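Troubleshooting: if your tokenizer reports a length mismatch, compare against these two reference records.
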Amino acid sequence: MAGTDQPDQDAIAAQWEASLDSEDPAEAAKAAAENELSETMALQWAAMVEDGSRDLGAGKNSGERVLSQEEIDNLLGFAVGDVTLDDHSGIRAIIDSAMVSYERLPMLEIVFDRLVRLLTTSLRNFTSDNVEVSLDRITSVRFGDYMNSIPLPAVLTVFKAEEWDNFGMAVVDSSLIYSMIDVLLGGRRGSSQLRIEGRPYTTIETELVKRLVEVVMADAEQAFRPLSPVTFTIDRLETNPRFAAISRPANAAILVRLRIDMEDRGGNIELLLPYATIEPIRGVLLQMFMGEKFAATRSGKAISPPRSCRPRSPSTPCSTKPTFRSSN
């Protein structure tokens, strides 16, 4: 086999040499030039493809960076499915910018500060215990967002403002309910709060919560009395937020959170007043302080309120017109 392979290879080599000798030198040079041109073009194409891929990669890294979920949440101002009542930013701030802020109603803060002082005294008499009431915050919320954020179980008390012909809501959380029941029924101090999930409140618990809300409503009437006499009457008590709808979900409302502490126990009670409810006294709430209508100035002269005076004689009674005093 090795002997037969050797002659065949010699014969093939001889045939290649004969074919190369028989070719025209010009044609051979032309074929070599064409091969060289093809190789040059192939190299150019390879360089162009490599440069293009490098530029594309640089563009992706610089201008087309994919945002993370945290960056998207920061841009929007809120996470998807996350409902919060704190200050917002981003697109959420733009959406809520049309909502009236309570800071434009300065008298509200004075009213609720007065409510805190009255409620501290009333709850001490109600529980015969050392009770501290503090104003946690006053903020503006959308009614629907707040109803979706209420931690359950809780008791939602719908009340009506008779003179304003509209409704409000008081929400007592579970912690305050069980703390108040423990205090009123003679529970020992220092005991851990019992929280039973998945059961409705009993008749006794509901009645005690109703008495607590009645105390809060009576003090709220006194707090609003210097501005506008109003009577708050309890309409119903609910445990399901669906049955306590008093406004449209997109409507704005004022949320007031009061913190009630009884030594090592306590909880929160929240008052929700839709803007439609306080609309009848909006002009009064816009005042910077009580009696601002007497502090108006005109042409550099201060207008003072009418003063009581003694008439000099029966024929010259005291004038009830406001007196003008020069600023000089």
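Reference record two:
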Amino acid sequence: MKNYKYSYILLFIFFFFFFLIPCTSYAEEDQGVENINSLSAVVLDAKTGMVLYAKNPQVQIPPASTVKLLTAMVVLDRLPLNKKVRISKNAEETPSGGPFLREGEVYTVEDLLNLMLIKSSNQAAVALAEAVSGSEENFALLMNIKAKSLGLQNSKFQTASGLPASDQYTTAYDLALLLYEALKYPKIAEIIQTPVKIITNEQGRTIIVKNTNHLLFDNEYKEAIIGGKTGYTKLSKHCLVNVAKIKDRLVITSILGAPNRESLWQDTKKMLKIAELVLENKINPVYINTVVNLSQPVNHVYTVKNKIKSAKYKKKGNKKLIAKSAIGKGKKEDPKIAKNKANSTKNMASKKKSKGIKTAQTEARRGV
């Protein structure tokens, strides 16, 4: 009977110490792993290439403005930094966040790289693409050739800016590889870690730009953060590929599909903590796969421009049909009535165009 009593006492002590008293273990620190809110994420040890953390690493998602790292690499492969580039009408009309570049302004390649990588200017990206290849479409061919040479096996690119386009995608893993390769370009490494930059164009206009990567200003991590590139579209949601120094090692974090900007910063910091634990051999690398739903429609930044063009052609076509119809019936419309109709149609088209461009620019401002 006494043996049973001792057994109960020992069982109670075991239960008390191991289940009721909170243990100081790495399992508690590891709980943050499950709280990564982003749809897809990767942590890469830049020294060994080892994946320290992965959540849906091969899910294909539009890259948004993170693609500008690839754009910068293609540009630097082909143009000198001091080459002057004149902003075209097409570049000026590209939906973008401020500062807005104007047709006819002249910037150096280095200036445009700073605008593109620090402030995420879509206009600068298009201007650089045109300077290299004459058009963004031709430039996209070079982007995909470069991507293949870097080993990006699950990516395809259509725009230099990352603005939405059909059949354009990347993965969190490919994005991490992209930044790893981009860091081999000293100018890219210099620009992405620049908090604030003053740029003056040939006409004397001075622009001050602040980096969209808020981790550069984070009190907890600003000493560790080296730099990175942000992005946003409706389908991509918030994105960030970033590099930091953890335990004297370069660690690359890649995020696609964060629900909001704050989650972007918080998830990155959680992932850096996970990286630290793995590098200290306190936990094993973490791999997570979840059910992914990408049914949300792609936004219509580029479609807006196409719709405006279609409306113009439709309007011209309608005028011809009306004219033919009038001739066929042998009727001639009163000139005053015809003029009023034309003005009315013109005003309506102008309002639609203004609304469309405003919507596109609002979307593009968030695409940083």
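Descriptive notes for reference record two:
- The chain has two domains: 35-288, 301-366.
- The first strand starts at residue 40 and ends at 45.
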